[in-house]
Amino acid sequence: MDPIRSFCAKLRSLAVTLDSETARLQRALEKEDSDFEGYAVRILHDLNSEVRTLKDNVNILLDKASLESQESIGFIKATKVLMKKTSVDIIKIRELFQKYGYNPRAKKNSAVEQEAIDSKPESTRDENLQKPDVKDDMSNPVVPSSSVSEKIPCSPQLSDFGLERYLISQIPPNPPQAVNNHKKEPNMLTPSSSQSPVEVLKTPKCALNMDDFECVTPKLEHFGISEYTVCLNEDYTMGLKNVKNKSEEAVETEPVSSNSTTASLINQQLEKNDDEYTKSPLAPTFCTPGLKIPSTKNGTALVSTDYPLSKTNSSSNDLEMKDYTLVLNSDKCFESCAEASSSPVISSYENLLRTPTPPKVTTIPEDILQILSKYNPNLATTPVAVKACHPAKHSLLDVKDGTSEMLATRKLVKSLRRTDHLLVPFSGWQAQIAQWLTGNRGLVAGQGLRPTSHPTHTEQPAAGAGLASGQNG
Amino acid sequence: MEEEVDKLELMFQKADSDLDYIQYRLEYEIKTNHPDSAGEKNPVTLLQELSAIKSRYQTLQARFKPIADEQKEIKSRICATFNKTMAMIQELQKQTDLELSPMTEEEKTAVEQLKSHMSDL
After folding, report:
1. What is the pLDDT of residue A436?
2. Closest to B110 (Cβ–Cβ): which among A18, A26, A78?
3. Which residues of chain A neighbour B117 with C-beta distances below 8 Å?
4. What is the mean pLDDT of residues B82-94?
């Protein structure tokens, strides 16, 4: 009863208050009551203050929230910067470690990588925990940690790389074997020592299969020996033989009234001819169409050579002409060797390749020669047979006329005159070449070419024709 | 008994309607008689709105509280990790004698900021 009563009483008081207030407000609305004005102002004032406080609270909260957001943004930026730097540093360090064999941690579980992976974290852990000397770690890239295997830093073994299966069982050499090695000769030593370890060691499975490989003796063709080239070898051997003979002859022949220059030239040419056989390869063909090259068959045609006619008595071996056609017809060689005919012609081409020995004769121009000949008629007349002789010896011993040089030049001039008439009329550049050839003789400086128009010798324009003409003459 | 209850109920309803009428009447008068101040909101409504906002803010704060806590924890963790990483790098650098690029200004400030943050936490 009491709670109900109290409740009812409170309810009644509330109702009374409500009623009175309502009446009051209504009266104030109708403007019948005048005691509300202060009251209203007070209420308004309260209202305003309340609003103000609320506003302030809101502002404070807002500021706090913005501050926190700013702080978090700054934090994130700083972390980003630091992260970048640390990543750069880590990459640098990793590269340095990789240089020394550090394998980066892989997430795959392959059998081969597993060992590498195992070693890596171990090694890094070791670095952090034990702080070992880094240099040792570098040199031993896969130093396993204590957890994996107890190993002091040493040279990396095959097992470290997971390649134990390739390990060849090493058996130490026996002491008696070592003693034997000491006793035996050095040349014997190596085969025995090489054999013994071979016997001891396990030969790897991949042995050299020689079954498919037929050890065939190389045929003669492989060496370039065929029926066509057998003769060349004969020439080669002959050339070698002749070189030997020539050297003997050159030493023997006396320097009697022979000019040093021609002798030297002859010697050169002899050697050259022999060397043609013994030396290889052939000189490049100097294709000069129009330049008649003496063929092997007939030795009449002559090219700008200074080969003296007195060469006839020379040995039969080297009279072979040089064929510019690069085809050494051995038959022709023999033919030419057989015929010790007139003016054996040899191109001076090979001669040109070699710098001839400087002639000891001072070149005397022709006009002076003529003048001299007037005063000394002996020089003009008799051409002395030229013999092969040593130029040094000759120069010392030749005292006949007292003018050895003049004699030599005179003789050469005569020989040149004889040969000149056979020269083919040259074209412009050919003339130059011929001039160079003549000039290179080093004998007569001022002598120009005397191209005599020989009816039989006609110019051949084409190169091949020139070669052919050289052959045919 | 029931009659009195009914009477009370009726009286309450009457009072409520009267109050509504007064409010409406006031607003109407303000609108007509004082048009310049009609744009401003009624402080009462303002008050009401403010209270509503307040309540809403309270709920939001309650919801975001765990998030804020998580954020703080993350920050602390990040700081700790960074410190560890920096220490490790310095150690490795010492061991390898590798010349790492020196820290720039901003990096230094970042480090200090992180350290202060760690101290705050």
Report:
1. 67
2. A78
3. 75
4. 85
Measure B115 CA to nearest chain A CA, in Å. 11
Structure-token pair, residue B23: 């409010």
Residues of A in contact with B71 (CB under 8 A): 72
Q: Rounded to whole angstroms, what are the CA distances from A469 to A292, A326, A424, A461, A473?
A: 6, 15, 11, 10, 5
Going by pLDDT thresholds of 50, 70 and 90, the confidence category of residue A29 is confident
Range of lowest pLDDT (A216-220, A230-234, A245-249, B92-96): A230-234
Which residues of chain A does B22 touch, with a Cβ-Cβ cutoff of 8 Å? 22, 25-26, 29
CA distance B7 to A228: 151
Residue A186 has which token pair? 């050095």
Residue type at position A163: L
Q: What is the pLDDT of residues B4-59, one digit of tens each?
A: 888 878 888 888 888 888 888 888 887 887 776 666 667 677 778 878 888 998 89
How far, in Å, CA of B110 to CA of B83, rounded? 12
Answer whether B98 touches A (CB < 8 Å): yes
Say how far apart CA A57 and CA B58 lie, in whole Å: 12
| CB atoms B111 and A92 under 8 Å | no
**Given the structure tokens 């090694």, which residue do they identify?**
A123
Q: Across the interface, do A78 and B78 touch by the CB < 8 Å criterion?
A: no
By CA distance, what is A80's nearest residue in B?
B110
Predicted confidence band at A70 (pLDDT cuts at 50, 70, 90)? very high
> Token match 């000149």: residue?
A420
pLDDT at A455: 41
3-state DSSP of chain B: CHHHHHHHHHHHHHHHHHHHHHHHHHHHHHHHHCCHHHCCCCHHHHHHHHHHHHHHHHHHHHHHHHHHHHHHHHHHHHHHHHHHHHHHHHHHHHHHCCCCCCCCHHHHHHHHHHHHHHHHC
CB A411 within 8 A of CB A257: no
Shortest CB distance from A127 goes to which of B95, B107, B111? B95
- Closest residue, chain A, to B108 (C-alpha): A82
A261 within 8 A of A253, measured Cβ to Cβ: no
- Whether A338 shows a pLDDT value over 80: the answer reads no
Cβ contact (<8 Å) for B46 and A51?
Answer: yes
Integer angstrom CA distances of residue A328 from A228, A230, A325, A357, A366? 10, 12, 8, 29, 40
Identify the weakest region by mean pLDDT among A102-106, A440-444, B14-18.
A440-444
Above 70 in pLDDT, residue A276?
Answer: no
User: In sequence order, what are the residues at sequence separation of 6 or more whose Cβ sits closer than 8 angstroms to the Cβ of residue A102?
Assistant: A94, A120, A123, A141
